[in-house]
Amino acid sequence: MTATAESLRQALREATARLMGVEEEYLVVDPVTRAVAPRAAAVVGRAAASLGERVCTEITQFQVEAKTTPCASRAELDAELRRMREVVAAAAREEGLAVVASGTPVIGDVVPPPITEHPRYGVGIENYRALHDEQAICAGHVHIHVPDREQAVLVCNHVRPWLPVLLALMANSPFWSGRDTGYAGWRILAWSKWPVAGPPPYFGSLEHFERTVAALTASGALVDPGTLFWDVRPSARLPTVEVRVGDVPASTRESVFLALVVRALVTVSLRKVEDGDPGPEPPAELLRVAYWRAARDGLGGFGVDPFTGAPRPVAELVEELLDHVGPALAAAGDLEAADTGWRLLREGGSGADRQRAAHARRGALTDVVDDLAARFTSND
């Protein structure tokens, strides 16, 4: 066995201890009209009695953000996510409200949204202005423990080509304020208008990363390091690589599946970095097109190979991703769970597919919101 092969096996064994955490953003809705309701602060106030600082308001008054603690195992993460969602849902019911996990509001007058009062948001509004008009959007963020920031920057290079696949896999935002957008994942289109969003540049080192961030800050594009909104990044506040490309998953099952795949992807990428591989560099223009196609077609359509530009079935690209991370999933004991998660998504459709199916039953958008509310604390 070569030294490289042995080092890979050692890294994969260590994957079982690599901590992961999830942040999710939810929308507060009126259970009668099913429109989004600007009462997130009341829901957060009640939920904080159980979750403490793990639940907070977001930039608009429609949104609640909640986060798990760092988890070592699939079972631990599943339990944390279930409890987190149950607490938030119960808090909403006590206020006569409901919560849903959707990348965009299905019903409601959301442009411009009511902004949460906070000094940081005030600075952001002064800086970014009307870009906030479409910020009632919700993502799911996965954090994986990578304490060495030099390694974290290079890991992002390896994750970067897979971002469109993760985007298609988690597409859960076909509707926007009462209309079908024609896209499976509209959230990412609204988000892409920001000056520092989407896939990050390719970085050769931590120094290159920090030099670029300093230039972006000097230009006025960043309010603070937290407004570095790239879809994979070294976290500004935690010793993690944060993958934030996907819409918030409709159910805990999908959220756990996403976290397992991301952890395995980061684990495989980290081993490549440690072996001296700085990562592939697909052309930025093809990566952008791959994003657009993933957002439009979602799980059931065609994606774009970011290296060749060739259209390929998204299911084929997902299979390729799972093959790529399979050794890390197996080492962590998560291979069967990931295979099951993929099978259920393949057979039952993505969040966007299910939203449209709920709408198709009677042509009523209220049915979409009801379906999302039912899935919020269920395991599908």
Automatic annotation (TrEMBL):
Pfam families linked: GCS2
Name of the top EC class for this enzyme: ligase
EC number of this enzyme: 6.3.2.2
Any one Gene Ontology molecular-function term assigned to this protein's record: glutamate-cysteine ligase activity
InterPro entries documented for this protein: GCL_type2/YbdK_subfam, GCS2, Gln_synth/guanido_kin_cat_dom, YbdK
Keywords: ATP-binding, Ligase, Nucleotide-binding
Known catalytic reactions: L-cysteine + L-glutamate + ATP = gamma-L-glutamyl-L-cysteine + ADP + phosphate + H(+)
Origin superkingdom: Bacteria
Family: Belongs to the glutamate--cysteine ligase type 2 family. YbdK subfamily.
Function as written in the Swiss-Prot or TrEMBL entry: ATP-dependent carboxylate-amine ligase which exhibits weak glutamate--cysteine ligase activity.
Protein name: Putative glutamate--cysteine ligase 2
Species the sequence originates in: Nonomuraea spiralis
Source organism phylogeny: Bacteria, Bacillati, Actinomycetota, Actinomycetes, Streptosporangiales
